[in-house]
TrEMBL record:
Low complexity composition-biased segments: 304-318
Organism in which the protein naturally occurs: Chaetoceros tenuissimus
Annotated region (Disordered), positions in chain: 247-327
Main localization category: membrane
Name assigned to this protein: Peptidase S54 rhomboid domain-containing protein
GO BP terms: retrograde vesicle-mediated transport, Golgi to endoplasmic reticulum
Transmembrane portions of the chain: 63-83, 103-126, 138-156, 176-204
Length: 351
């Protein structure tokens, strides 16, 4: 009786697929918000992570400015974050590289939180209401809205993007999304949501280029402080040409391969996506190139005209077959004559 293998675990298979097919920074961000959601079953982590002006400035807990975007305490928010962030983050990270994408998310989170603190502080000074100092800003949606606004800002004015059953102008898509959130939240919109879209628009229109990491600086960081980060599974190399342009991901022509000279599929100079770098493989580009199954020139199929014409043409090696055979026959004849002469001499001696 043959034993059957145990049934495959669907949860393990889903995790392995997510791990193998998701770039490093996108995977780390989603893993972080998933972990904080699971922790929220027992304790709300936003109390210790959220950017609350009264605690961030009053008690000098500046770490909240950096880590507050990477949290989630609601299942619905986690599901929509997966549908929105993982897909969009996968495309953007493959276009601009893991280092650039990680620096972009950190910069967005810090700028949004600082502006949120300034607005709440100004409202406290004007109204003298201490509740403004307790307004939190946290959650991955501050990053998602900023990224969406940044990629929609430079889009063509005539381009459209589908929003459920209707199409809206791409440039106004983040505003429509904000109105949608307002309808589901009873008309109230958190301040940091508005700030997030504003920061994304500013970046998309080129007003925040100072947070962009230049090519040489990025290479120095990857060779230094980020050396171990570059060996992690899912790391995507940055643009080979140095700088990169943030464009609308939905309408941008997707490069088909990394050709090593910073040229994409449309022939424009800039970034090119690369395959994931394995943690134990230093040359990912060499490992990613498929090796031909047969020798000779690539791109010929069996039975094609190119392959048949190749067979019909005699090669240089086939021209040397006949002289080699003639030499072998001549040598065999000499050996036969020598053997027969020796045999006749032996017979004559016996007589």
């Amino acid at each position: 009786m043959t034993s059957q293998p145990p049934p495959e675990n669907p949860f393990l298979s889903a995790y392995e697929s997510f791990y193998n097919n998701t770039p490093l920074v996108t995977r780390m961000v989603f893993t972080s918000i998933t972990t904080t959601y699971l922790i929220s079953w027992f304790y709300d982590p936003s109390l210790m992570i959220a950017n609350i002006p009264g605690l961030t400035i009053g008690k000098f807990q500046l770490y909240r400015i950096v880590i507050s975007p990477f949290t989630c305490n609601q299942l619905l928010s986690l599901i929509f974050a997966y549908l929105s962030f993982v897909t969009s983050g996968n495309k953007i990270e493959n276009l601009i590289g893991s280092t650039n994408f990680g620096a972009l998310l950190l910069s967005f989170g810090i700028i949004i939180n600082v502006i949120h603190i300034l607005i709440c502080g100004l409202l406290f000074v004007v109204t003298r209401n201490p509740m403004w100092l307790m307004q939190p800003s946290y959650g991955v949606w501050m990053l998602i809205l900023a990224v969406i606004a940044a990629e929609c800002a430079p889009a063509d004015p005539s381009s459209k993007r589908r929003f459920f059953f209707m199409e809206v102008p791409t440039r106004f898509y983040p505003c429509v999304l904000l109105v949608f959130f307002a309808l589901f939240s009873g008309g109230s919109i958190p301040i940091f949501y508005v700030v997030s879209i504003g920061v994304g628009y500013l970046y998309g229109f080129g007003k925040l280029d100072f947070i962009r990491i230049k090519g040489e600086r990025r290479k120095q960081m990857e060779a230094g402080v980020l050396r171990k980060f570059t060996t992690r599974h899912g790391f995507v190399q940055g643009p080979t040409g140095g700088d990169w342009n943030f464009v609308d991901v939905e309408s941008a022509p997707q490069p088909v391969s990394n050709n090593g000279n910073g040229t994409n599929a449309s022939g424009q100079s800039g970034w090119a996506p690369t395959v994931f770098r394995s943690p134990d493989n230093s040359s990912s580009n060499t490992a990613s190139r498929p090796t031909p199954a047969f020798g000779g020139s690539a791109g010929q199929k069996l039975g094609s005209s190119s392959s048949s014409s190749t067979r019909s043409r005699p090669s240089a090696s086939s021209n040397n077959v006949r002289p080699d055979r003639e030499a072998m026959l001549a040598a065999a004849e000499r050996r036969a004559l020598l053997a027969s002469s020796r045999q006749s001499n032996d017979e004559a001696k016996e007589v």
